[in-house]
């Protein structure tokens, strides 16, 4: 690790837990201490030594246009001329709300918050308040932020009460969450049969991005929509990653499924802190001050974040962008498949649009159990080899790689060549 980053990390660990402000950044999953980043531009990051890396983390999703897109920077700068925060309504937040309502098919009303966690926490409280029910179904391997109801792991056996996934989550609360295998409609049916009229909502990442990328199988999302409709259960799509990523209208547009509530974040903030939740008008009207279900936030709708988000979504209105992202992503991921083949290493790629994952192994990856059967230790070696060649991947096998508009053929060819070198080294270690 670079000296300056090492020195800063040592100091940071004294006063910031783990030396980081979010655990995955610490690199423990890949056994590498984090680089401290000085700046970013386009598809590049520079560390404190001024070394340049090709970035596929993209701030965990927000930077779909690439870093420092000139129009986004200009919009933030213009907003800055008027101040930083008022704690009062602005036309900027109205503009962003309008763009979300116009673009995300199921969203009729939307409320801004400051993170994806706040978005899912608020949507879950709203679902419970609206239905008068308390139980929640989530899926193993899906991550919805760090709110207590979602930091729950599956109990022993199927369709049983959840157990806390972290100290500090009350067992009595965790019990209300049931975590089921992703893509397992039968398990959902069984659980709804058992607890149907006690279940407020099913929350899901329609395309999972937090166990690596795992796609919904044919009929899975349709089946969830059918079961929830028949049992008065709300369907919540957590599109914090997929919103405006896999298509302007997110996974719900791609798969033509209308959830009752949708959670958003990342891209809609253009790199500044934003989250949002929205959906059916009759449900959203229950949120204070219209309704009596409480949710609030000092910096919700912050003008700088709104300006960054509005400009980002304005640029994404150009549908050609998604065709470009698809072409770039297909080039990159097919190049990785070819490189692994030439190096004699078995990998599986799961990809939707410009979000994808590299798994080491041969078998299909369709849920968290199959993810855990992949050779995650090989991912760690792959990560280190790629970093040594200045390619900056997610420091965990359970994350997604993102392609931005700023990644071009030259940088992706360099990535593919670096991957071949890395796979060859891995192959020689087999
Ligand atoms: P935030 O509270 O981190 O803004 O969003 C939580 C969240 C909710 N839903 C989904 C589908 C998410 O992916 C996330 C956050 N994603 C992680 C990584 N995949 C953020 C990175 C981190 O935790 O540092």
Explain what you see.
- There is one protein chain.
- This protein folds into 2 domains: 177 residues, Aspartate Aminotransferase, domain 1; 247 residues, Type I PLP-dependent aspartate aminotransferase-like (Major domain) (Aspartate Aminotransferase, domain 2).
- Helix content is 38%, strand content 16%.
- It contains 14 helices and 16 strands.
- Strands 4-12-11-10-9-5-8 form a 7-stranded mixed β-sheet, with helices on both faces. The chain has a 4-stranded mixed β-sheet with strand order 1-2-3-15.
- α8 links the parallel β10 and β11.
- The two termini are 25 Å apart.
- The mean pLDDT is 96.
- It binds ligand KE4.
- The site of ligand KE4 has 19 residues, from α4.
List keywords for this structure.
about 425 residues, alpha/beta, Aspartate Aminotransferase, domain 1, Aspartate Aminotransferase, domain 2, 2 domains, seven-stranded mixed β-sheet, four-stranded mixed β-sheet, 16 strands, binds ligand KE4
In short:
The protein is an alpha/beta fold and 430 residues long. It has 14 helices and 16 strands.
Fraction in beta strands:
15-25%
CATH topology of the largest domain: Aspartate Aminotransferase, domain 2
Hetero compounds: ligand KE4
| Proper CATH architecture of the largest domain | 3-Layer(aba) Sandwich
Helix- and strand-based class? alpha/beta
Helix content: 25-40%
Question: What form results from the Cα inertia axes?
Answer: globular
Which residues sit in consecutive blocks of at least 5 with pLDDT less than 50? none
- Kindly report the spatial arrangement of strands forming the biggest sheet: 4-12-11-10-9-5-8
- Rg, Cα atoms, Å: 21 Å
DSSP E strands, number: 16
Let me know the largest β-sheet: 7 strands, mixed
Top-tier CATH class of the largest domain: Alpha Beta
Corresponding CATH superfamily of the largest domain: Type I PLP-dependent aspartate aminotransferase-like (Major domain)
- The separation of the N and C termini measures 25 Å
Domain tally:
2
On the 0 to 100 scale, the average pLDDT is 96
Instruction: Count the DSSP helices.
Output: 14
Order of helices and strands: HEEEHHEHEEEHEHEHEHEEHHHEEHHEEH
